[in-house]
Design brief:
The complex is a heterodimer. Chain A is of the alpha/beta class. Chain A is built from 17 helices and 22 strands. In chain A, strand 21 and strand 22 (about 475-480) form a beta hairpin. In chain A, helix 8 (about 225-235) runs antiparallel to helix 17 (about 485-505), helix 12 (about 350-360) packs across helix 13 (about 370-385) and helix 12 (about 350-360) runs parallel beside helix 14. In chain B, strand 2 (about 155) and strand 3 form a beta hairpin. In chain B, helix 4 (about 65-80) runs parallel beside helix 6. The chains are: A alpha/beta, B mainly alpha. Chain A: Its main location: membrane.
Amino acid sequence: MLLTIRSLTKTFPGTRALDSVDFDLRAGEVHALLGENGAGKSTLIKCLTGAYQRDEGELTLDGAPISPQSTLEAQELGIGTVYQEVNLLPNLTVAENLTFGRQPTRFGMVDGRAMRRQAEEMLSGYGVDVDVRRDLGTYSVAIQQIVAIARAVTLSGKVLILDEPTASLDSREVAMLFDVVRSLREQGLGIIFISHFLDQVFEISDRVTVLRNGCRVATDDIAGLERLRLIEHMLGHELEDETREGRHAHVPSDPSERTLHFEGVGRRGLIEPFDLSVGRGEVIGLAGLLGSGRTESAEVLFGIKPTQTGTARDENGEIALRNPREAVAAGFGFAPEDRKTDGIVADLSVRENIALALQARRGWARPISRAEQNRLADHYIDRLDIRTSDAEKAVGDLSGGNQQKVVLARWLAMNPRFFILDEPTRGIDVGAHAEILRLIEEVTADGMSILVISSELDELVAVADRVIVVRDRRHVAQLTGAEVETDTIVRAIAAPDADSDEEAA
Amino acid sequence: MTSRTLPLFATIAIFLIAYLVCYLQFPAMLSTRVIGNLLTDNAYLGIVAVGMTVVILSGGIDLSVGSVIAFSGVFIAVMLRDTGLHPLVVFALLLAVTTAFGAFMGGLIHVLAMPPFIVTLAGMFLARGAGYMLSVESVPIQHPFYEVLKDAYYLMPGKGRLTLLGVAMLLSVAGGMILAHRTRFGTRVFAMGGGAQTAQLMGVPVGLTTVQIYAFSGFMAGLSGVAFSIYTASGYPLAMVGTELNAIAAVVIGGTILTGGAGYVFGTLIGVLTMGLIQTYIVFDGSLSSWWTKIVIGALLLMFILLQKGLLRLGTARAAA
């Protein structure tokens, strides 16, 4: 075994990012590492490359225990990494990038000719036609990836980690990259391949390991592995038998009672045009894998990436949604996926964060009085049970779950009619998780409509009246009533892939 | 010609065209006398601009250099007045002080993770204040060795004087070119200008390199201070206010991108000479106010910034295509 990881554990304040994870890599294999956002993939990689220090567990490379303290040390040990965002310097030449730190020198000066020769040697065998004297930035991302791989292989030469290398490549470039990966595999490198494109995983990998919530769910040979099984692993399936009794009997199933209609909204390259009608008090779930177009759907609906086609209208006529400002004016709310960067203003207090959206809608000329702000803050701290010492504490100091509650409070203060929640329970503790789900039920009972995006299918099944399945940037299925079950959702997500398997067979 | 060399060629072309315009109006401007004076008069600026180029290439800025030059002049003048040391010993002491000062600022920038703008702004006030501590008045330098230095020149054909100062500037530029473009240190500087985090991932010792960069800038500022003290034969703590900005302007007119990572030391020389040429033209004309220098430099700067933005956009568009 080239590389083994045994019971690797890494905790961050408030979360256990990796919980006793085992992983091993043979020489001459491509091992895919899969998981949704927050499953622990990047933490695992960072522990391997020395960017993070593990709390517990053992790493061995070629049988010898290792503990890389920095990416440089990991590189020297033999573990090289290539990231999606190429970590080379576009303003240096290809040759300088390839030989960086080890440029041949003569009399203390860099020997340009020897450097270029060395660079050309490093690139030979990769089948790319590159003038090493040109700036790296003048080449396409695919070429840059291959240059980065060539550098990593020459420097490290045992383990190559490819972190989402294909995310910004077109299919021809992916094929070129995969040729390179295959030839490296034949040379006996161990390659860890991280991607959320399942087709690519099936195409290139020998084995696959799935992480979920910081735990290893499964490691399987790719041959004979069904797509459906794999997706089940990724999305989790534990609470299969949980019943759905007592849910939302009041919700109108009759489409004529739906008050908010989106027709043919979409944006090229982001999400294909889709229709969506929303009823009062209805909870719609949006399911799909990472990168399938879940978040993109929400961004189009909220005007963050304005729709290029289609219309939105309610009982009073058409609604403009060219930007979030107009969406807010139309009574929409949006709690984004990346709470830390897009949701909270970490340095402002709980009170200020809660008052923010309401103030934005009123405009700066009509400030909300301090007394009113205090009243709002106290009300929501009480209602959502936000655990904070007082309303003046900076939001950045709260735990993830309480930060999320503050974001929710901000929108609830405006009483939106349509509230989009993108991964509302990611990275928050179990207690807060349950409270947020309860809150969803509560506000919908008052007539608010909600769109929930989640990779936790159990969560969707628990709260949603209808589930829309997104795949390859298209809305492909709608499940209602009794169909809203994890099984059916997984099947809908996997559906066409299974078809193509059969075709291929 | 690539997008990398385009600003350099643009700089050279502008300089040549400007010189041609000057020549057509005042044929006397194409003489070795004018050229010799152009080099001598701008020697101090050229020397300090070489240091500034390296700093800007790394994505930083050094606002302290003008004050350091003034401090250097006062330091030399006071030392020569109050001690019996030979000027060469004083120069060595001074260069040690300014290099250490630069290294200290570089260390602060790295350790405190502070923007170079702030740290060197503090350095600017500090160096200016240190100059005042030594003397509040202008101190003349009357040392026989200084007379030797001032009168050391090579008489070019056409009676132009290639002075020691001019040669010192040209050597500084040559040294800077080798350092920036032909050494591993230079590649590290470009790497940091391209992205400090990426540079770190590629194995640049960021802290050490930052210290070295600002130490080099401090050294060049000290050297420039020596040149300036020879040029004026005095030390005055109020001298050279705003020189750091002239140096930055010369670097940018020389085609170096202000955000770092791309540029040429040779371009900086052309930038300095272009600025000197404008001044010479105004002297020749005799009727123009010297403020025109600033206006032309301002216009040139604006032009180069627009050129860089345009190239940047072109580059992104090509990468996207």
